[in-house]
Every structure is written in structure tokens, then in C-alpha cells.
């Protein structure tokens, strides 16, 4: 009897494991555990078992029943793998279902990247109006109204009663606006749109973006300007980037510098590089120590505070960073362009 | 300014090849833009910043080079002229001393006007000018050499002869040497003879009195004019000359006599003639300024220690004389040609420039504690960008300036449009009063390039007049969609419609923590009457959305359907809640029950949901439309709507009996209040 029970158990488990589907499993349940099932029939033969073995055989019958029932349940839950084996194979090379992700405009991205670098250096983001006054755009920045230094800042004017309103030609007016309302020390960056009446071509646009930086405090030095810009250049264009400062002139900074980085395309090595024209250097921004005259105009004492300022064209940085060769692409919003960033 | 490599060597020894010289210029502040090779020379183009008019001459550039390299400056000879007998002179009168502080005139008689010798022609041509005759070429040569613009008149054509420096009278005219007649007015300074203007002071001479082949006697002018007046005149008459360029930037008064002597001696040498006395009217050169420099300040500003001796050497080499010096402070005498050196900081810059910016160390700036790092508006803008790009929209950036024609399209602008006074083209006539033209133009650009499935947004300002001298810039969000709803999907396709746009906006609002918004009917003419809505937060309209009206689309040449929305971002800034608070998860499960009704058009979704919520009360956790069917078996004008109601009790697991009552109340209310029959 005991041997018979064990044989039934083995056979039942084998059959359950090779069952092809739910119906087959149901049939096996009936075959073994049903009212006329194999195990039920065997149980009926308990009477023939000698009394001494009855308890032992009884236990065995129960354990075999439990094990068969368990195997059936497992099979139904699918752990037997029978159904997966049966399913038709899919074409894994068909395209995935997807929704096209949208893209952030490369100018916004570039402003974000530049801002993040300066924010990590402790700078604060500040903004200002695009429709400005002559005062903030020029005079407050030590640019006399009728002076050749204004030639670099050809300007759109808007119709107004006083005739003194214009579209800011740089983000620097925000320097004066901020200083009038705040006391040093501070470090700010000012991103925003600026406008200049330039005929549009591959490298000129009548509207573009700038980021201005201004740091003012008791003991701000030219060497720190170099430090901040070095960190910026390496973070933005890679750790191997070299930087140089050339003397220049801006009415609102003194000493003033044009800042070049080693060509991000040829690394300063390419004799025929089309990006740097073989010069090895790319001009990326203007900078300098804040002219004491600018401090005086906002009521700061230039004997007590010093500062540095810098300004860069975002389009230019983005063009260098992404290898874009035509500034007009930024404003055409061609989706083939936008999707690349 | 063009610098001929070989010509420069007349004034200073140059040991570097042209390319290295150009680099040296660049690193000293005379940015070299290009080098052009000619048959026998190399021409370096340098960009002279507006603070350094002294660099607008060979002598000036040579002086700088001498200071950097330690070579000696070789000034061109200007020997004293021997005036024979009483000599001839003309009367000179300055009527406006502010606009003309000094005027000198020298008569030279019996010159022989002829083509210039080859060496002179070569130099004039190297500067990109056309040689005229020996007299004119010499005045041009001296302009480039010394930086002082000069002019030669044909003495015999001057009435009087006399020179009056005065403002032009209304109605006066002059034919300038470019052959064009210029109308003059009282703001313009002229050189006149007894009867009429003979030159536009500092800008251009007159054709009547110019030196020609038949000229025998000349009058050589060397003068100083007010920079602002010259700049105004040059702009007003639209004439920019080598002369006006220099006078605008201020010429050195001390240089006048020297330059006049230099030109006269060259004229005598090349064209012969007998010089008269120099008539010199007006102010003499001003006294030299003194500016002091503290070495402690210099070191503090630059972040470096430069020994005082080195500081003195640098400034001496630049022609600044040390007047006195103590342990810290140096007093320096500034030559008149360096009008840009007025304050201590100017001297600090000079020292830094010559010492070399590259030798100044690199230091880390200290970090200052500041109230905020990024304005909250900026953070919300960025969050908006990330939500919208996550929903598949591309960010666009469009010009803030537009043509008038585009904003005249119905509803685009009000009467507060900001106009540009000096546009370069018709594309820049006004500041955009709306983001719609930019959005539709971007759509058109893509449609024309066969890309018609577009989901775009822009965050930018619109500009408005807010009184006579006041302007407002309103930060706005525009969203526009057209074409396939899911262009990436395979199989059945569907075009974008109002509800796609609405879904985008609802997601945006919810993600920004704004739940109290409503989309309501509106009659905004920019959108089509069938599908348009206003967006309200707490009862205030913050935006508008819908299918762009076919008239508006036609104005932009767009033939396909497009949906757009405009939202006042300043309002979103006010209502957005970015701070998150955790809410306890419910302990007991919710139970869902569906209700299907047949409802007419008057029973809007909002009305039905409102009725369900009010009837069900607090036990209802959520309700939403899960199916909408119009068609067979449904009476015309009606729709079958199925809502899923989710009930939940925070204190126990709900059973059928708990909700049976509420659910049937809801069913009855829908029928009783809205006539929406249970199905």
C-alpha cells in the first residue's frame, strides 16, 4: 500500500508538470483528487490495511493528497511555465511604443548651464527690464550720450513722450539698477534678452541673449575675476580649456579685458580650423574691474568697495558649445534643429 | 586703423615678424584683427578702442610699441621753417571758441601741384586711399603719421582772403569735395571766408576751394574742434571721414603746431613754395594734468604685489613723468596726448596692461551669503519647462520685435503696442504684444518644411505701453499644438484637438500645485467660436485657449488646424505651490461604482460632476468620466456618459450596504436636477 501511494504521487507530479494548460490541470485534479479519483479510491482501501499500520498509512495518504493538491495549485498559478512555453513568439525588433519627449531650447539650456556654474560659486540670479532708459543703458555705466564709446552700442529706441526709452543694448543696466537698491557685498548674474540694430546674417542678430555678472565687496580683486572666469571656462568647455585675458576698453570697467578661450574645436592646434580661423583662440566675453565712476553714480564709495563685472553673449557660447554655425537657427525654431538638444 | 609693417619701421625699430607683432599688439590692447600680405608689405588691421585716439596714428602706435619693447621712438622731422621777409598771412577769427578752441593757418605761396612721388603714393595706397596730388597726399600722410587731421585750401579761391570759424547760418549750403551739396544749419560749425562756408569744420572741405592742378598758393589748416560738435555734424550730414573720426575722439592740442610744421616742411620739400608765418589763434595747449597713484591700491585692486620701481618704469616708458614719490604714493605728470588718463584707476590699468594680465595670479572669489540664489519665478518657469517638455512639447524662442502687419491681425494687439522708432526693417516695427504671431510663424516655418506634427511652447515677455513714459513687460506662456496627437505611435492616428491642449494645461496646473482652476466658455475672437475657453484661477481669467480661428490662421498662411493657449505666467507664479506636504495614506480600501446616464448638451461635464459631488457628500473620494458615446441607440443631441465614482471611508472598509443608499441618491439627483436618465 505504501509503495503504491508513493508511485501514485510520483506519477501525479510528473503529469502535472507536463500539463499543457489549465484544462489539462483541471482534468488531473479530477483524475487524482475527484470523487472517483485515484487517491480517493486508494483511501477506500484503508480497510485492507493491517491495524498496526493504519495510522502510518493514513498520514501518508494525507501527505500525498496535500503534495498533489499543492502541485496542482502551483501549476494553475503558472509557475510550471507551461503557458509561456505555449505562447507565440513576438517580433522583438518591432518599434517600442513611445511618446516623443519635448526639448528645451538650446539658448535656455545654455543660460541654465552658465547660471548653474555661477550659482555654485555663490552668485544670485537677478533680472531687469528690456525696455530701458538712456540713463541706465548709458549714463549710469559711464557711457556719455554723445561719445564714440557709444558706437559699440547702436540702439533701438521706442516711441515715448520723452524719447529717452530704448531697448537695452546689453544686460549691464541691471548692474546700476541692482546697486541702487542693494548694499554690497553681493555676487549677481543677470541673464536676459538684448537688442542691437544689426543687419541679420549668420553671425549677427538684432536680438540675442547676454549674461552679465557683477561682484562687489570690500576687497574684490582682478585676480578673483580671473579665478571666477577660469572656473567658468573649464566647467563650460572642459577641463583642458585654456583662458587668456587681453587688455580692452569698456566705459564701465577698468582695467578691462576681452577674454578668450582656447579653441574648443581644434584645441588651439588647428592651423586651418574654421571655428577659430587658425588663431587658436575664441573670444567669449568681456570683463573688468568695475569703474569707480559707476560706483559713484549709484552712491557707493569707491574707496571702500571694489568689484568685477563680466558679460557674455549666450548665442555665441551656445554656438561654440554645440558647433552651431548660424545664429538664425536659434529663432527659426525648425523642429529638426530643436530636437537635437 | 591700418598699420603698414614696413612704414611703422620709420618710427620705431621692429624686430618681430609681422605675425608676432600682431600678437604683441593684441595682448597690449591694440587688437589685431587681420594681416594682409601685399607685394612688398604686410598690412595689420588694428582695432583701436574709443578711449585711445592717440593710437590712431603711426607715431602713437610706435610710441606704444617702444614702451612695450624698450626701443626708442623716432619722431618724424619737423624743422623750423624759415619765413622770408614779412611773409604772407591771412586774418583768422574764431567766433565760437567752445567749438573751436584753437585754429592755425599757414600760407605757402608758389607751390607746384603735381602727382606725388612714388614713395608717397605707396604710403597713401597702403592706407586704402587713392592718391590725389602732392599737397592733398601730404596732408593725408601727416594725418596718419601724427594723428592731426589737416586741410589745404586754394588760397586764391578764398574771398578776403580771410578765415572765419563760425556756425553755419540757416539756408547756407556747401558742395563738399565728395561732390555732393550739403544743406547746413546753425548747429554745424564751418570754416568760412568773407562770404560763405568753405569747409565743414573737421569733417570735409569744400569743392570750390580745394587744391587743384592749377592751384598756386595754399592755406594749410591745423586746428582743434569740439568732439561732440563734430560727432553731431558727421551724423547729421552722414559723412564720416578719417578727419571726423579723429576729431570725434579728440585730437591732442599740443600736436597741432608740430603737425602743421611737419606738413609744411614736406610740402616745401616736395612741392616747393615760400612759407608764410603760422597764424595761431585761440587757446594754447592746456597745462599737463597730475594724477597720483597709490601702490597699495594698485596691489589691492589687482591682487598682486608689483614693486614700486617696476610701476615707475612702466609708467615712464609710457611717457608719464614722475613728479614726486613717497613710499606708497607716486604723482605723475600726464602728457596731453593721454586724455584718457584722468584717475588713479586709469593708471592702475596702464600698469596692469603693460605688466601683463597673464602675470596676474588666479584667485578664488569668496562666497557671499545672499538671501536667495534664484528668484522663485525662475524656478517656476523651469518647472513649467520640464513639465511641458515631459509632455512632449518643444520649447521655441521667437523675436520680440515684429512687423506691424502681423500685430494688426484681429485680436493680436490692443492700443498699447510699443513701437520702435528706428527699425532696420519692417520686421522690427513693434514690440510683440502677444506670443501668438511668433508661435504661428514657427508653425508655418515647420509646415513649409513638411513637419506638421507640432507641439510647441514659448515662455517670454509681451510688451505694452502703460502711459506716456511707462511700459509693462508681461511674462507669458504660449502653447500650440497641431497635427497627429501621437506621432510616434503605430496604427490608428488621431489629430490633436481642444482636449489634447486642455489635458496639457490641466497637467501643468496640477503639477504646479494649482488645483483651483476652471476652464470656461469665452468669446475671444482669436479662437474659433466652437472650441474656445478661458482659463480661470479663483474666478480670475489667467489665460485663454482653443482652436485658432481660421481668419487668424489665414493671416499667417496656415491651412491646417491648430490649437493654442496663452497664459499669464505672473498669475501662475502667484498661485503655484511647489512645497509638498505628505498626506497620510488611507487605511481602508476604496470601492468603485459606475453610473451611466444619457444627457443632453445642457448637462455639461462640470455640471454633472458638480451634482454628483454635492449629492454624494464626504464619502465620495473621486469621480471621473470614463466613457462618452454618441451615435446609434442614443437620441440625437444626447450622449451616453459613464462616470466612475470612488467611495471611501477613512474609518472602515466600505461594504455594499454602506454605499447603496448614496449611489442611488446620486442616480436620482442626476435625473431630477439635470434630466440625465440612468441607463
Q: What would you say this structure looks like, in words?
A:
The complex is a heterodimer of chains A (341) and B (679). Chain A contains 13 helices and nine strands. Chain A is an alpha+beta fold and 341 residues long. Chain A folds into two domains: 2-86, no CATH class; 106-338, BirA Bifunctional Protein, domain 2, CATH 3.30.930. In chain A, helix 1 (2-17) runs parallel beside helix 4 and helix 6 (106-120) packs across helix 9. Chain A is rod-shaped and about 125 Å long. The mean pLDDT of chain A is 89. Chain B is an alpha+beta fold and 679 residues long. Chain B has five domains: 2-69, Phenylalanyl-tRNA Synthetase, Chain B, domain 1 (2-Layer Sandwich), CATH 3.30.56.10; 91-282, Phenylalanyl-trna Synthetase, Chain B, domain 3 (Phenylalanyl-tRNA Synthetase, Chain B, domain 3, 3-Layer(bba) Sandwich), CATH 3.50.40.10; 289-359, Phenylalanyl-tRNA Synthetase, Chain B, domain 1; 376-575, BirA Bifunctional Protein, domain 2 (2-Layer Sandwich), CATH 3.30.930.10; 591-678, Alpha-Beta Plaits (2-Layer Sandwich). In chain B, helix 4 crosses helix 5, helix 5 packs antiparallel against helix 8 (255-271) and helix 12 packs across helix 17. The radius of gyration of chain B is 40 Å and the shape is elongated. Chain B starts with a strand and ends with a strand. In chain B, 40% of the residues are buried.
Could you outline the blueprint of secondary structure elements for this entry?
The complex is a heterodimer of chains A (341) and B (679).
Chain A: H1 2-17, H2 22-33, H3 38-44, H4 51-77, H5 82-86, H6 106-120, E1 124-125, E2 131-133, H7 134-137, E3 165-167, H8 173-181, E4 186-195, E5 207-217, H9 222-237, E6 243-250, E7 253-262, E8 281-290, H10 292-297, E9 306-313, H11 314-322, H12 329-332, H13 335-338
Parallel strand pairs in A: 1-4
Antiparallel strand pairs in A: 2-3, 4-5, 5-9, 6-7, 7-8, 8-9
Chain B: E1 2-4, H1 5-8, H2 18-28, E2 31-37, E3 42-47, H3 58-69, E4 91-94, E5 102-109, H4 118-126, H5 134-146, E6 150-154, E7 162-167, E8 173-175, E9 181-183, E10 189-192, E11 197-200, E12 204-205, E13 218-224, H6 227-237, H7 242-248, H8 255-271, E14 274-282, E15 289-294, H9 295-302, H10 308-317, E16 321-325, E17 329-334, H11 344-355, H12 376-390, E18 394-395, E19 401-402, H13 404-407, E20 430-431, H14 436-447, E21 454-465, E22 471-482, H15 498-511, E23 517-521, E24 527-537, E25 540-548, H16 550-555, E26 563-568, H17 569-575, E27 591-600, H18 605-616, E28 620-629, E29 638-647, H19 656-674, E30 677-678
